[in-house]
């Protein structure tokens, strides 16, 4: 199946800031990723590769970062990837001898995983209600998947804690919270504070009827740390990747200009004791 960019139907959605609960956020984001998966893979597929493990737009690669541990220790480890998209990270994990499971809420994203191929399970499910038994996995990971889009991140964190074995590690990357105080623009206009960092009102895109078609939720850095701790994890590292000289790409609001001045990504490394 070759990707086919689906033309948007009707007028562009209107962006606003308003409350959006669990059900509305889930429905909106499942629909958004199903509609936009083709365009996303066309636009970002080359940067992500088919079988690389890239944590963020800065280009931090698990080969170098080893946030899940040394590659040689991944062999035979059961790994859950949340918000897997086309399962690029799971494909890299499988190449190291791990036993990944790629989970995504979007059926269309997982169709792209099928298109690229790979001998590991693909699961279409909500990260807040994981369809796995307790203690099923040794490791879990999420590169910009699930956590930014859920109204209650502790539901996801507690589910991941449940399905991990004692000593298991969960590593996830999200937009750095400080970015919410700045316009989402790659140029100089994205360097001036435009809102309060402490305003946790979700970003919502609405259709003509006022229904949410995309929702993203803001948590401060302190909120994220408290969410991790309240869900039973121990935070062992917080990585803020610097923008590398080799990366000349722009990805939405990420760019060399902004990346060299303010952080764009936060990666939380958590352990289930």
Automatic annotation (TrEMBL):
Region entry Disordered, spans: 1-25
Residue span(s) of domain Methyltransferase type: 80-172
Gene3D superfamilies: Vaccinia Virus protein VP39
Alphabetized SUPFAM superfamilies for the sequence: S-adenosyl-L-methionine-dependent methyltransferases
Gene Ontology molecular function: any one: methyltransferase activity
Keyword Transcription: no
CDD domains the UniProt entry points to: AdoMet_MTases (cd02440)
Alphabetical UniProt keywords: Methyltransferase, Transferase
Domain of life, per lineage: Bacteria
GO biological process: methylation
Cited InterPro entries: Methyltransf_11, SAM-dependent_MTases_sf
Record-given protein name: Class I SAM-dependent methyltransferase
Species in which this protein is naturally found: Streptomyces hirsutus
Lineage, top ranks: Bacteria, Bacillati, Actinomycetota, Actinomycetes, Kitasatosporales
